[in-house]
Amino acid sequence: MQFNLETALAAWRRTLTYNRVINGDDLDELERHVRDQVEALSRIGVPKDEAFHRAVREVGSYDDVEREYGKVYWGKVRHGHQLKAEIVWRVSMLKNHLKIAWRSMLRQKGYTFINVAGLALGIACTLLMLLYVRFELGYDRFHEKADRTYRVWMEQTGEGTTSQHAVSPPALAPALRRDFPEVQQTVRLGSGGGGEHLIRPSPDAPYEQITVAYADPNFFDVFDFPLLAGSSETALAEPYSVVLTESAAQRYFGKLDVIGRALEVRLRDNVRDVTVTGIIEDIPAQSHFSFEMLGPIATIQREFPGPTNDDSWRYFWAYTYVVLADGFEAVDLEGRLPALAEHYMGDQMAQRGIRFAYHVQPLTDIHLHSHLESEWQPNGQMAYVLTFSIVALLVLLVAIINFVNLATARSAKRAREVGIRKVVGAARTQLVRRFLAESMLLTGIAFVMAIAIALLALPLFNRLTDAELAPRILLEPGMLMIIVTCFMVVSMLAGSYPALFLSGFRPIDVLKSRIIGRSPREAWVRRGLVVTQFVISIGLISGTCGIYIQLRFMKTADYGFDKELIVALPNYSSMQQALSSETVKEQLLSHPGIERVSAIQRLPGDENRILTNAAVIPEGFTNNIPIMWHFIDPDYVPTLGLELTAGRNFDPDLATDVDDAFLINEAAARRFGWDQPVGKKLLNPVDREAMGAVVGVINDFHVQSLHDAVAPIVFLPVSRPGHVRHYAVRLASGDVQETLRFLETKWKQFAPDRAFTYTFLDDSFDALYRLDERMGRLSSGLAVMAILIACLGLFGMAAFTAEQRTKEMGVRKVLGASVYSIVLLLSKNFAALVLVGFIIAAPLTYVIMNRWLADFAHRISLGPGIFLLAGAVALAVAMGTVSYHALKAALADPVSSLRYE
Amino acid sequence: MISKALVAASLKPFILSILADGESYGYEIIQRVQDLTDGRLQWTTGTLYPLLHSLETKGLLEGMWREAEIGPRRKYYRLTSKGYGALATEKQQWLSVHEALLKLWGPDQALSSA
Q1: Nearest residue of chain A to residue B44 (CA atoms)
Q2: CA atoms of A516 and A522, how far apart (whole Å)
Q3: Do A58 and B44 touch (CB under 8 A)?
Q4: Which residue of chain B is at minimal alpha-carbon distance from A60?
Q5: Of A28, A59, A72, the CB nearest to B72
Q6: Nearest C-alpha neighbor of A650 from the set A714, A587, A606, A721
Q7: CB-neighbour burial class of residue A587 (10 A; exposed 0-12, middle 13-18, buried 19+)
Q8: Which of A120, A479, B31, B32 is the most buried (most CB within 10 A)?
Q9: How many CB pairs below 8 Å do chains A and B form together?
């Protein structure tokens, strides 16, 4: 490059222009000096550029000038006007930096866009994940007393098995209040006995289902659900009053002004009128329980005395919450609970041979950490929240890596500019500041883009995760602070590498056009970064595949019975009274599209809220074993397609079967330790009399998700109309729609005042896997993000490399290399990187996936197929990205490539 | 090479003395010092000019801008009457130190130098 004194002088002068100490006059003087010196040196034969270099060095660095002049102008003491001058100076410095950064950005629009877009995507992912984590962690925190509120749960141990339940006896709450001064308040919540609740606002309206809860009158004291109408003190004071949610009121009455209105409620066999005494806002998503209608416990105590009594210790249906007084800790309470259990339940425990223990859990822990039986609704998983936070951070890492890589590569193109600056004495700190300013500008733009992307994607994200994130959450002060902090961190991180790296150039290398970026160390760093990106991407892809395969497995695995084409129809209480199951079956079977019908108590796939375990003493045992009961009819086995592995089914013609016969499943036979189960007796735990004998064994089948192993079950024949809650109908394949229409007509006959509903059994099983499906969706979303960002980065890298080797490619073409071989050459290196990434990712993902799968009682085994697929996808995508530039380089005119410089 | 302290201490007397001979500008002053000391005394631009400004602020020097043929103008300095007075003081102080040292080292040392 030709040295031009005027240009160099101008550049050098510019660097000192922004010095806060010297003014224009001083600068003139210094420039004059430099010129004089250069002239003098030239006269004795020193080349101009070296003379300039020397003269400028003698003036001293920016910092030296500042210091020396500063000593004179400012002396030892800092004056007021100095500070003002300093601020003015700093601001103009920043403006100058930003202006230069902006200009350099515009000059390389393409790269810049890729850089910023990749970073923005990564940040958007992280933002959304942050919101989601906050959402999950924040369940139940909106209650004012949340910090002091706890739920008491129950552990039941008998005969070697332990079960843990979220529900407890109704007598627990009053006892706690009585005996424990540290308990300030207690509240019981019940789910309405598990039976359906139907309401209708007026006699001419149809009945509709509604979710109901029952609570103690002080419910609103403990839980903050603001009342839109009515008074929180009196709303639950009287039995047969109800509080409705906003949307429930709208749905049934069309308006909210309904205090005092009457509603007809149907509960099991009873019809009652209730009065609306309050309206509350809809229960927010961040609550671990939810309902549309709330009534006082007093109501069900009137309706179903006995199990609901305040002194009943034998029935477990109440969710018991306590508020501790200030100054008391949960441990204090928990320590005294064993004594309480002994005192009130000691007799029962001795009699039934079961031990009960009570424990305390914080309200705010329930959503993520509580997985007891009979939870109000399935809770989230802390493990998932953690995993996704980590993965989102990984995606952000990928994005930052890209940013750094590309920024560094981009700067290499501007190395000459850097070189000159250094020659003319720009201090390293100044350069660092300039690059940091540039990275801050780019990061700032990326952040703004990211927020826009996040806001746009929020509805989709909400659907993916079943969350309810409102846009305004992003603007909360807490979030904003986090965003700003992240912005600082990311821009520092992203900017520091190129800044430090570039300002460390030796100017002479640059001026003499020794291309920066060729040093082996830098190349290794870049390679390492690309490999990391692909490790993460391949890991995510294979992980997602694994999740989906496990999900598919769980849905299609052998459940032990044939769950296809089985429809479950409700047996309403009205029907129970009027129609015997024989009549119903007869009528239904008359239709050719119906193969079998069974009258049953509970459906497989159902999630029940009442403790349905009861204890029994199997023959050969001395103590009780808690076990699950099912009421079934003789058609159950054939309808569901089950098999009897020993003995026989219930026989409707045998009178003894009704009272004395049991069926058990294989798991129960194993549990009881019976090789020959048929004929063995089951004893009543209370009086140890035989209740009957086992007549047959059914094969193991799943009534719950494949997360759990098959539980031991005892089957009894349906003996009361009230046992039959559902009809399971097996449909013939063929015109299912027509059969459904037939069923609808029939049900209109059976229950004219009810809306017709039905569920397919495999649908209700699918619903059990909602949480896992959510995981799958999130995982695939993140995988797509990761690979998208990795490709953006790869695109930039490929461009950079292709450009660097333009001359080489030109020469090769001239020497006769084919397009194909050039493309191969350029792509080879990247392919190798992907391969390395694959080698690292595969075992890591294998280990992590196995740990996740260990939670499932039934799981797939991970074969190499998933990993190979993920690797292949990554490779294909990478090659596709790289090929654009490779092809461009291969097809370029060698003449122009060789002229390039 | 001459120690930093000595260089620093001699700056002011040198400048005042050189300018006593007539007005001059920065580069020229540096050149003169180099000639006078055969290159043993080296001043950097960064040290000279601030001092010139300092002396100017104190009123010992007076600066004037003169246009040059190529490039920016030059700033010429010359002593003010106050400057001459300061020079006299400097001379007096320097010489008294010098004489005291000579008494220790012997008069013949003045003629030979290291």
Answers
A1: A58
A2: 9
A3: yes
A4: B46
A5: A28
A6: A714
A7: middle
A8: A120
A9: 60
CB A318, CB A169: distance < 8 Å: yes
Nearest alpha carbon to residue A768 among A595, A887, A604, A529:
A604
> Cα-atom radius of gyration of chain A, to the nearest Å?
38
**Helix count and strand count (H, E) for chain B:** 4, 3
Assess A762–B contact: CB distance below 8 Å, yes or no: no
pLDDT tens digits for range A256-265: 788 888 888 8
CB-based contact A357:A337 (threshold 8 Å): yes
Q: How far apart are CA A657 and CA A676, in angstroms?
A: 19
> Residue A305: CB partners within 8 Å, gap ≥ 6?
none
Q: How far apart are CA B15 and CA A143, in angstroms?
A: 81
pLDDT of residue B18: 92
* Minimal C-alpha gap between A56 and chain B (Å): 9
CATH topology of domain B4-110: Arc Repressor Mutant, subunit A (1.10.10)
Q: Which residues in chain A are closer than 8 Å to B46, comparing Cβ atoms?
A: 58-60, 64-65, 68
Q: How far is CA B40 from CA B28, B43, B114, in A?
A: 17, 10, 12
Report pLDDT for A484.
85
Classify strands A594-600 and A726-731 as parallel, antiparallel or unpaired: antiparallel
ipTM, two decimals: 0.80
Predicted local distance difference test score (pLDDT) of residue A717: 82
B 4-23: CB under 8 A from A: none
Evaluate whether A105 touches A442 at the Cβ level (below 8 Å): yes
* Residue A106 touches chain B, beta carbons under 8 Å: no
CA dihedral over A251, A254, A260, A261, signed as positive or negative: negative
Decide if B69 touches A, using CB distance below 8 A: no
Contacts of B57 in chain A (CB under 8 A): 72
Please check whether residue B3 touches A, CB under 8 A: no
For the four alpha carbons of A863, A865, A870 and A871, in that order, the dihedral sign comes to positive
Phi, psi (deg, nearest 5) at residue A712: -70, 135
Report the gap between the CA of B25 and the closest CA in chain A (Å): 9
Could you give the dihedral angle defined by the CA atoms of residues A51, A52, A53 and A57, in that order, rounded to the nearest 10 degrees?
100
Beta carbons of A408 and A497 less than 8 angstroms apart: yes
CA pair distance A193, A312, nearest whole angstrom: 15
- Residues (pLDDT < 70) of chain A are 1, 18-20, 74-82, 104-108, 158-161, 192-196, 268-269, 408-431, 474, 497-522, 573-574, 577, 605-615, 720-722, 754-755, 803-804, 892, 894-901
Which pLDDT belongs to residue A512? Answer: 47
pTM for the full model? Answer: 0.64
- In a 13 Å sphere around the CA of A140, the CA atoms on its Cβ side amount to 23
Q: Which amino acid is at A876?
A: A
Supply the pLDDT for residue A873. Answer: 85
Residue A777 CB-half CA count within 13 A: 13
